[in-house]
Amino acid sequence: MTKTRTAAVKTLTRRPAWKALAEHYKKIGNVHLRSLFADDPRRGARLTAEAAGLYLDYSKNRITDETIRLLVNLARECNLRECIESMFEGRKINVTEGRAVLHIALRAPRSEKIVVDGVDIVPQVHAVLDKMAVFSERVRNGEWLGYTGKPVHCIVNVGIGGSDLGPVMAYEALKHYSKRALTFRFVSNVDGTDFEEATRDLNPEETLFIISSKTFTTLETMANAHTARAWALSALHHQGAVARHFVAVSTNASEVAKFGIDTENMFGFWDWVGGRYSMDSAIGLSTMTAIGPENFRAMLVGFRAMDEHFRTAPFEKNLPVLMALLSLWYNDFFGAETVAVLPYDQYLKRFPAYLQQLAMESNGKRVTVGGAAVNYQTGPVYWGEPGTNGQHSFYQLIHQGTKLIPCDFIGFCRTLNPIGRHHEVLMANLFAQTEALAFGKTEDEVRAEGTAEGLAPHRVFEGNRPTNTILAERLTPETLGKLIALYEHSVFVQGSIWQIDSFDQWGVELGKVLATRIIPELESVAEPRLKHDSSTNNLIRHYRKLKGGRS
Ligand code: F6P
């Protein structure tokens, strides 16, 4: 390692604030939440923050006021304010790809001016939104006719990664607001099963495919797009049908045209929108078609409210900053490896999957922006399931296992589906879980219940399991926008402190290249000459043998 690189590597852990946090951890790392709460009866009301209608209770974290002070110092020492401004001002902070990072421009009002390479991009953003609105209204009103003159009422989004997870998450999250007469399906996996199951009951005459791909070269999406075209044409028998049954969302007009989609029916976006930050761009075309332009715009208003809060609020009261710093506290000082995201709302069932790409593709990096290997932990694993389902599967490990798993609980005070006592029971479970995780149950308490001698250790809950609780009034398009922006910015804050490029994803490349090499080896009739390692060679031979006795 060169001298300069060594210097860069050590920068973060040599910072006074980092060292102070390491010292502080030695003092409070083992302090129990029970004593933190006992020492400060107002803690539960005090360690909270509210912005744009989202209420964050972070009191059940293993922190003191001093921890927050030191974490905020770290953010300051890492020039977080400047990093935030760099993003909002459109500097090319995606260094390895030489790109600006401006998903915040997707929700900028028409009156705003954001300049990239000398061009104000806000009018372009609104031109696309307006075009999406016209298109989606035509579909919603039954005015978009298929090739045989029937209105389309089945919409299939074909895309993967950011071109799928955002749309499917938002569709599920906002189903309550969707036009129920329309059917929405999402095809992402190159496994033919995904396409088959998504389309088996659809009528090609009434089906519209939205081919969503930033690059329009992604192997899975292109394979599914070609299969979709063959599926449609085998029923509609004319190339002219493609124009009525296929639209594209992409930055790559020439590939869209090559595929046969009229670029008039293409909805563009820009290289300054990362795939995993694109669900509120044209990639949200299926979302807008489902919920309507007005609701989509309300979602953008929500994003925008959180953007403004993030840009202007002091770090101590800044929701994305606080959440980022707390997660970093566990990740880098307690050695926690994962974060569980637990929405107590069935509509948010795909939210953890969406967050996985957002957080893990962004911050799963082992070198700094300058290319030096880090000597600290970067992005944790994100995972989760909606409550209360998770309670009956993996919560056992969170409560009594040997791993520390900080959790984000998300709940709403008013349900969209008031049925009997369901919502109170749901929310009671949310509150109960955070209480149990924080305070647990001591051996004395277990014994006082008359538990048999041998069973007592099994029934003890150690507690001291940290949680955040995020509450909002109701799940609306606007609330969803706020929630997503909260996590987007939180991921950004962490990446800024870790000095990594949160906006590239080189780690997905190698597997793609190797798969492209292996495809012909699986397909060839003649026995291929394999040059992989002995395990991969052997697996390929075994596969060829079982799939049809060719080897
Ligand atoms: O392979 C990873 C990735 O590049 C993601 O970052 C992206 O969201 C996804 O593939 C899909 O890419 P595209 O929209 O270009 O098809």
Structure explained in plain terms:
There is one protein chain. The chain has 551 residues and is α/β, with parallel strands linked by helices. 48% of the residues lie in helices and 10% in strands. The chain is built from 23 helices and 13 strands. The chain has helices at residues 3-14, 16-28, 33-39, 43-46, 65-77, 80-88, 122-140, 165-173, 192-199, 219-236, 241-245, 253-259, 285-291, 293-312, 319-334, 351-363, 395-400, 422-439, 443-448, 456-459, 477-498, 509-523, 534-548; strands at 48-51, 54-57, 115-116, 119-120, 154-158, 183-187, 207-212, 246-250, 266-268, 338-343, 381-383, 407-412, 467-472. The strands form three sheets. A six-stranded mixed β-sheet has the order 1-2-13-12-10-11, with helices on both faces. A five-stranded parallel β-sheet has the order 6-5-7-8-9, sandwiched between helices. α2 (16-28) runs antiparallel to α5 (65-77) and α13 crosses α14. It is globular, with a radius of gyration of 25 Å. Residues 1-9 have low confidence and may be disordered. The site of 6-O-phosphono-beta-D-fructofuranose has 14 residues, from loops.
Concise summary:
By secondary structure, the protein is α/β, with parallel strands linked by helices. The chain is built from 23 helices and 13 strands.
Write the layout of secondary structure elements.
Elements: H1 3-14, H2 16-28, H3 33-39, H4 43-46, E1 48-51, E2 54-57, H5 65-77, H6 80-88, E3 115-116, E4 119-120, H7 122-140, E5 154-158, H8 165-173, E6 183-187, H9 192-199, E7 207-212, H10 219-236, H11 241-245, E8 246-250, H12 253-259, E9 266-268, H13 285-291, H14 293-312, H15 319-334, E10 338-343, H16 351-363, E11 381-383, H17 395-400, E12 407-412, H18 422-439, H19 443-448, H20 456-459, E13 467-472, H21 477-498, H22 509-523, H23 534-548
Parallel strand pairs: 5-6, 5-7, 7-8, 8-9, 10-11, 10-12, 12-13
Antiparallel strand pairs: 1-2, 2-13, 3-4
Helix pairs in contact: 2-5, 5-15, 7-13, 8-13, 8-16, 13-14, 14-21, 15-21, 16-21
The chain binds 6-O-phosphono-beta-D-fructofuranose.
